[in-house]
């Protein structure tokens, strides 16, 4: 079995110019946790996940105050201020651009399992020889494919 046999072909992608706010809307609207980022020709240029967004939006700096032997910690910025400031940031600034792992449609099932398990990825883009995104593989797709083959084998053995 090859990757093309169980990849999701209708892949939702994002463009580098898209804002964090637009990306959140896409992820939430489609109930997904991440997307490949493509250029105008559909070539893979990055990947961005809900985890990347959370890390980007998280407040980082704290101020410490020492008053009569009691330490008070005050957030440097309130989360509402951070959200307001960062929602219009282009996702190009937060997406992963280097060391992106991909699969090809002709790769075998074993390669997909090995890649996902070795790197603990939830999703891996599938790209053709020209570098265009043609699908995506998730851990759930692998489990679903395994389930189909296991139950198919069991029904054949019972006959």
Output the helix-strand order: EHEEHEEHHEEH
Which range best describes the helical content: under 10%, 10-25%, 25-40%, 40-55%, 55-70% or over 70%?
25-40%
- The overall pLDDT average reads 84
- Counting DSSP E segments of at least 2 residues, the number of strands comes to 7
Rough shape?
elongated
Strand content: 15-25%
Keywords:
three-stranded mixed β-sheet; elongated; alpha+beta; 23% strand; 159 residues
What would you say this structure looks like, in words?
The protein is an alpha+beta fold and 159 residues long. The protein is built from 5 helices and 7 strands, in the order E-H-E-E-H-E-E-H-H-E-E-H. It has helices spanning 20-30, 50-57, 79-86, 109-119, 139-158, and strands at residues 14-15, 34-38, 44-49, 62-67, 70-75, 123-127, 133-138. A 3-stranded mixed β-sheet has the order 1-2-3. Strand 4 (62-67) and strand 5 (70-75) form a beta hairpin. The chain starts with 13 loop residues before the first strand and ends with a helix. 18% of the residues are buried.
Question: Any chance you could write out the topology, listing elements then pairs?
Answer:
Layout: E1 14-15, H1 20-30, E2 34-38, E3 44-49, H2 50-57, E4 62-67, E5 70-75, H3 79-86, H4 109-119, E6 123-127, E7 133-138, H5 139-158
Parallel strand pairs: 1-2
Antiparallel strand pairs: 2-3, 4-5, 6-7
Question: What can be said about this structure in brief?
Answer:
With about 160 residues, this protein is of the alpha+beta class. It has helices at about 20-30, 50-55, 80-85, 110-120, 140-159; strands at about 15, 35-40, 45-50, 60-65, 70-75, 125, 135-140.
